Amino acid sequence: MIARVAVALAASLALHGCASRVAPAPPPASPPEAPLPTLPVAPSASSSLPLAPEPDAEPVALPIRAARHRGPAGLSAVAVARAGDVTEARVVVRGAGLAADPSLARAAAEALSARLAARPPPRAARVRVSAALDALVVSISTTDPVISLRALGDELRRAGGDGLPDDAGAPLGEIALFRALYALPASVHPYAELAPTASPRQRDVARFVAERVTAEAITIVTVGALDAAAAHDALAATLGPTPAALAVPRPTPPVSPDAPRLFVIDARRDHAEVTVGLLTLERGDDAWPELLVAARARRVALARLASLEVRVAPLRDGPCPLVARWRTSPGALVGEVRDALAALSLGAPSPPEIELLALRSLTRDHARVAGQPRLLADRLAELAALGRDELPAPPPTPSSARLARSLAEQPASSPVVVVEGPASALAPSLAALGDVTVLDPSRGLAPSRVVKASR
User: Fold this and answer.
1) Model's pTM, two decimal places?
2) Is 45 strand, coil or helix?
3) Interaxial angle between packed helices 352-371 and 373-385, expressed in degrees from 0 to 180 and rounded to the nearest 10
4) DSSP 8-state secondary structure symbol assigned to residue 422
5) Is the pLDDT higher at 21 or at 232?
6) pLDDT digits (tens, 9 = 90+) for 383-426
7) What is the pLDDT of residue 351?
8) Burial class of residue 117, CB neighbours in 10 A (0-12, 13-18, 19+)
9) Which residues pair with 221 in a beta bridge?
10) H helices present in 76-171, as ranges
11) What DSSP letter does each residue of 227-290 carry, written as one string?
């Protein structure tokens, strides 16, 4: 959850020449798939992919060829054939994620998770249910995908559960960031309605499931020994008839203020959790691949920050945020935030050597995803949640003209800074950068006071 902005990337002949001299390593051998133990289901509200450490050798991406099938009721399936005993399956329900209703989406995911844990799909399957931003996603690793998908179809449209387990949900910093980034002066954007976990009524969860879990909203992703038509038929056999999908209007684009906004979430801890974000481009923009290279270059430039994560969060609706998160000490907070704001502004291209490192990093990431069924299924599920049909592709050589042109066509975006920690210490320090709004986590992140700028 998160933020965006604008910049140009330099793609020099030197960069291109260096990239062409990298000798690819042979494709990594796929490890044999062992029988899977039955594990308890662990729901998760996170939609971000982990940033893996950079290996020295460059893996070679396997070709990704997918088959698609769409049934008469609108249920669709995407299948990538891969050898092995284990099939990775993902069932994506678009429109049933946190953007639709945070508390109801989490409750529906947790109730389904509890039922599947009590009645695990046969033949040693691992199952996880997550409430992502734009979809509910069921992830299954199974040696018998047909039986597992049939078992899931029996449970998918039931909302009941023995109580609703507690869920920490999305990090408070990301919730506050999205609220600020997608706020509208005269209407409501779904990403601005994210909220900390609440305890909804069971009847409201049942209504949410009945309205949102429909055949037209579901895409089945499989990577393994099950083709698209068989995956469709397995789930459709027990899902049964569903109502027509809800019409989901596209929201009004958010309006960014003229200056950065600063927030502190008052929390008891001896360190500060920092989230910085700004709006960039829509997911369908032609310059999206170059934006990913730019984001990875910013991660390289800010690598000194502890536990740093930098990513562009792909969203279905509106411009997507470029977000950086890291942990720091109160004494280093202001200097590190200044450095991050300068690096994330996208106002100037990164040095060619940093862009080259970023491009190599993304190429390796694509090769890992293409070569590992679990990661490939996750990536295809992410695209399905956005309603997109393309396959994961390696990043192209950056084109500074295309990215600069796309960013110039977007309204300017000012960054949002959210710091979670003791407000009494952090807010006066952060006020060196501007007015600071203190948020109260015990009241749903409602503003409690404003610390005026000290500069």
Assistant:
1) 0.81
2) coil
3) 100
4) -
5) 232
6) 999 999 899 988 877 666 788 888 888 877 889 999 999 999 99
7) 85
8) middle
9) 78, 90
10) 102-118, 145-156
11) -HHHHHHHHHHHH---PPPPP-PPPPPP---SS-EEEEEE---SSEEEEEEEE---TT-TTHHH
